[in-house]
Amino acid sequence: MPQTTATGPAKALVDAHQEPQDLVLWSHWACPFNQRVWIALEERKIPYQYHESNPYDKEPRFLELNPLGLVPTLEGLFDSDVLVEYVEDLYPASVEHPPVFPLDPYEKSWARLNLQHITKKIIPAYFKIIQAQDPSAQSVARGEFYTHLRTYTARIKEGGPYFAGEQWMTVDGSLAPFVGRFFLLEERRGFEGKEVGEKWVEYAKNILARESVKKTTSEAKYYTELMEKYFTDEANSQVSIAIRAGKALP
């Protein structure tokens, strides 16, 4: 039976967010798209209640809020990119609620462009390399993946430690959940961070060390178990079906 609840540091965070709140995060512990929004909520220090949604037995209330049955969901809204912006707009930027988008209009637009690169290039390539079965197809997918990561890395501000420099932004938080799963690619698909470059290796280390990332992460062994069907291309999630069909992610 697949693991249906968070473990490790993420379990402690779930337990700390069971009190009723106006804002309810309908979530699944293993979903990297969910973790993007979870990180944003933690970074912005916004009160929320965490509600685990079992993907194998979806509650009627959850399906009322989101008939597609996708996590994450907040107040009937879904799509992690949309939700991160919603979280940003809930409270004005302040010391109590630090922003996860730049305040400067140009820099904010630049952040959005790089979010698109993550969502439309890096993440599909991540799933493509996982689901590829033939060694030659894996090699091609791995090459594409390296290319997209190098493009992103070239845009990281010199000196870091984060994408835009010293301040953590949603660009970092949107990529971190996937970087936290790159160990699976190292074990099963021959991925090596050093092939992207030393700048990437340092950046990846920095974002994974962020407190909001660490405390929204479960134990590695459960990610390994959950992803097994993806590595054998037998998963039937909407993401895996889209990758198999060569379509955009849902």
From TrEMBL:
Domain of life: Eukaryota
InterPro entries: Glutathione-S-Trfase_C-like (IPR010987), Glutathione-S-Trfase_C_sf (IPR036282), Glutathione_S-Trfase (IPR040079), Glutathione_S-Trfase_N (IPR004045), GST_Omega/HSP26 (IPR050983), Thioredoxin-like_sf (IPR036249)
Segments forming domain GST N-terminal: 21-95
Limits of the GST C-terminal domain: 104-231
One CC-aspect GO term: cytoplasm
SUPFAM superfamilies named among the record's database cross-references: GST C-terminal domain-like, Thioredoxin-like
Name of one Pfam family that matches: GST_N_2
PANTHER family: GLUTATHIONE S-TRANSFERASE OMEGA, PTHR43968
Name the UniProt record assigns to this protein: GST N-terminal domain-containing protein
